[in-house]
Amino acid sequence: MNDATSPHRPRWLNRTVLGIGLASLLSDWSHEIATTVLPVFLATMGVAAFWLGLIEGVSDGLSSLAKMLSGYYTDKLRRRKWVAVTGYLVTALGTASFGLATAAWHVLVSRAVAWLGRGIRTPVRKALLAGAVTRDTYGRAFGFERMMDTLGAIVGPATAFLLLDAVHHHYPTLFALTLVPGLLATGCIAFLVKEKTRTPVPHISLTDRFRSLPPAFRKFLLAVGFFGAGDFAHTLLILLAARELAPQWGAAKAAGAAVGLYTLHNICYAGFAWVAGGLADRYPKHRLLATGYALAAIMAWTIVLVPITVWTLVAIFVLGGVYVAIEETLEDSLCAELVDEQHHGMAFGTLATINGIGDFLSSTLVGALWTSLGMRTAFCYSALLFCLGAWLTFRLNPPRLNPP
């Protein structure tokens, strides 16, 4: 009997969903340790916000290309779990190699390699997850995966905070320790996830495959693209908190507070991913996604218009966590609903590529605008695109265009 429909367990919480969730938790634990200390590590090299934005942007851009090619190629494979295993392994090794860096460009190369692995695995993991559950439980399955991913993002910063003192701020040792959860994540995909028998799609060109995707999905991608062009990496929020609090609190205390705020951000992310997943199976997904995009706009306008205090920063990080939970859960479950299961690899790869291109543009531009024109100008750019993305998403009506 297929474990997705076994009467002895919930239809959607099966071995594959649990294995993917655990892998997401452990992998995010691994790279969030590195991500949390990355701004402080770069600061020891005298690096400005431009370099942080460039590292995030280039890595996301390369990852987006890998996601598109992985989604296109793996839809043609009868078995594709091995692609996800390879991606998790590359991410673990690339993240650990941060410890070998002595200059900012070294970090750029390591991050790009890690995110290349992340790009290879992403559409395959999502297709495996969608294939393990029924259509009416997509929201809960993807919400569970996002929740587990974000539990790793909660444990990661907390672990980084403890390890910094334990290893006496010796960054190579700290980055090497990220291998432990990273390799465990690879093992979860290899040994827990069961791959369903599938029929590969016929070989056609990448362009023709994209054109075969439903019109409703392409309209959805347009909205995602505009939103993503403003959706900067939230390591910039850590930098914002550290810089704004440093004059009053001192650099060391401000860095600790920034890590604490990022942990709060991830707690909100984890909690609302679960809530968003449940709501996605009951209400129109595009309206819920538009709400998440609108919360992102409120967060950005708060940075632009409200004086930055510790309480303002708390509100900013809470809103950031909530909107990312809604965004990632709803984008994935809406994508799965709009496209036939046979083409899920291509659909998830295309969605991830659009997000990756947006991440490249947003992180690079926000970092550059911050350095050249000031912090508020940079986040005003994001706020305007968040508003446009929310409006375009609200106008969608995907349930009528492609009913379940």
TrEMBL record:
List the signal peptide residues.
none
Q: Name one GO molecular function term.
A: transmembrane transporter activity
Instruction: Answer yes or no on keyword Membrane.
Output: yes
Q: Which residues cross the membrane?
A: 37-62, 82-108, 171-193, 220-242, 262-281, 293-326, 346-371, 378-394
Pfam families in the record, alphabetically? MFS_1
All copies of the Major facilitator superfamily (MFS) profile domain together span 16-401
Q: Does the keyword Membrane apply?
A: yes
Alphabetical keyword list: Membrane, Transmembrane, Transmembrane helix
PROSITE patterns annotated for this entry?
MFS
Coiled-coil blocks: none
Q: Which PANTHER family match?
A: C-METHYLTRANSFERASE, MAJOR FACILITATOR SUPERFAMILY TRANSPORTER
Q: What is the protein's given name? A: MFS transporter
Report the source organism: Limisphaera ngatamarikiensis
